[in-house]
Amino acid sequence: MDNRVWTVGSLIPGRMKIQTVLTSSKSTKESQYLKNIVLQQNEKRFEIQPVKGKLLDTALSQENALSYKCRQGTCGSCTVKIIENGTVLSEPNEKEKEKLREEIYNGFRLACQAEILS
After folding, report:
1. CB–CB of 107/100 below 8 Å?
2. Could you tell me which of 116, 52, 51 has the C-alpha nearest to residue 80?
3. Which of 39, 33, 12 shows the shortest CA–CA distance to 110?
4. Alpha-carbon dihedral sign for residues 54, 63, 80, 30
5. Is residue 114 within 8 Å of residue 107, measured between CB atoms?
6. What residues does 53 pair with on adjacent strands?
7. How far apart are CA 90 and CA 72, in angstroms?
8. Burial 62-92 (b: 16+ CB within 10 A, else e)
9. Staple partner for 38: which of 25, 42, 84, 92, CB 3.0–4.6 Å?
10. How far is C-alpha 19 from the chain's CA centre?
11. Cβ atoms within 10 Å of 37's Cβ, excluding its own
12. What is the architecture of the domain spanning 28-116?
């Protein structure tokens, strides 16, 4: 589809000035990184703008008050439920699998261990 922008100069007889606007479609992967990660912890919902790094660090840097303690994946205080856009996160690591067990399959993650991918 050709999108044309007509200018005042293009309306003068004998002068055709057409500016073509090119549109690009973003890939699905790119558009995922434009969406916020929505998560829940202790009945509170948080929206995190995806930035490469640990989910907990990113959330805290964006002034989201997530609960946490050890930052090593052993206490479970930073457990969150991913509501939207969890596809930008790494696969659960061994610490998460050990601590959360079956809860991983219900969308739960340890924020200190989950990595936001780029």
Report:
1. no
2. 116
3. 39
4. negative
5. no
6. 116
7. 16
8. eebebebeebebeebebbbebeebbebbeeb
9. 84
10. 35
11. 25
12. Roll (3.10)
Give the H/E segment covering residue 56.
helix 55-61
CA-closest candidate to residue 92, choices 80, 84, 83: 80
Q: Which helix (H) or strand (E) is 53 found in, with range? A: strand 53-54
Structure tokens at 53: 């790094």
- How far the first Cα of the chain sits from its last, in Å, is 32
Q: Is the pTM of this model over 0.85?
A: no
Tokens representing 81 are: 């439920």
